[in-house]
Amino acid sequence: MPERRVSEHDPQSRDVVLVVEDEWPNRVLLKATLDRASIPRVREAMVLEAATLAEARMHLATRQIDLMVLDVRLPDGDGLSLARELNNAGRRPRILVLSASVLPTERTVALDAGTDAFMAKPFVPADVVKAMAELLDAGPVVAAVGPPCSVGPP
Hints:
CATH topology: Rossmann fold
Structural class: alpha/beta
Strand content: 15-25%
């Protein structure tokens, strides 16, 4: 998928990142990390915030989101349940899980839920920026609809 052209003058051309995190200091730290990112595509992305699953769902219903940075434990439920829901959609944003849990099983459960990447908190800012850039470059996840097309003689 071609990289989306980024322009500060045209908000429609910017990538949209949704940060789903209930802890205000963590949202502030992540936003500061993105504002100072060395990779322009990440630095210039429009950042939306949600402190709950309900707020995240509202953003997802009203905007095209390119990347979601998702916490696992939220006040109104498990962030991975949202990831599973999105896997049933025809198009979904890439999902980077940032979790305070460093258990290997947590990483496995997150990836099994259909997320694209997992990082533990506290995070190294440069690592988060690099992961976000790679996920934005990969584009959204688009589910195949119907049987594959065959071309040419049988």
